[in-house]
Amino acid sequence: SLDENNRIKEKSYLTLPFSCLTCGKSFIQKRSLTSHMRYHTGEKSFMCETCGKSFNKKSSFTSHVITHTGEKPFSCLTCGKCFNQKHILNCHMRTHTGEKPFSCKTCGKCFRHKNDLNSHMRIHTSEKPFSCLTCGMGFNTKRNLTNHMTNHTGEKPFSCITCGKSFNQKGHLNRHMRTHTGEKPFPCMTCGKCFNQRGSLTSHMRTHTGEKPFSCIICGKGFNAKRNLTNHVRNHTGEKPFSCGTCGKGFSHKKSLTNHSRKVMGPR
Asked: Where is the C2H2-type domain positioned along the sequence (predicted)?
């Protein structure tokens, strides 16, 4: 019958003739199986004559060679930016389309890049595979470890072109630059108030939701921002980290020191 013939054809399409004896994966073409086998054997047949690096796939080798020539044959039709590899162009295109195809199965958050999803997953698993050789502190991304290392080296490679102040992280410089430009790119969708830092917006949003995730372990009082909890705890500990440079008097809060300094200095 016609249905039976269709089933036979369908079965023949599903049966791939070249199978890997190691893992059982099947391929339509023999060369695809040959390429796949290199994953098991570790063979890297394609070597770059410029730097000596070896590859197990010709496509990976070809993409690598372009990094030496400076050639960027893949162009973005939207903004004209060029790339040396097609998959990098595909990733870039998501900045225009807003597409976020990689979603977290735990919380549903979506990401443009698979690496970002992998890093995010470590928040749920608490995995911190990147460790500081100096202090042993662990991090869930290599970028966070690199940023942390500057705390030990004292390196501050990012300088403000307006005032010359230097920072150990580019993100800190970007945040500082907004004090000069007045830019406030983080608006509250509820009341329209804008902020120059994402963290400030997050704290502000809790005034609408009533959320107070930071609790005092001494009295149980809740706060919507960590800095407010830190200030509150000093009421219990008596810590006074802010000292007057004129009379030496200590204060628990920076605002109290500022008010005191005005009284000591008098009107100007």
From this structure: 18-45, 46-73, 74-101, 102-129, 130-157, 158-185, 186-213, 214-241, 242-268
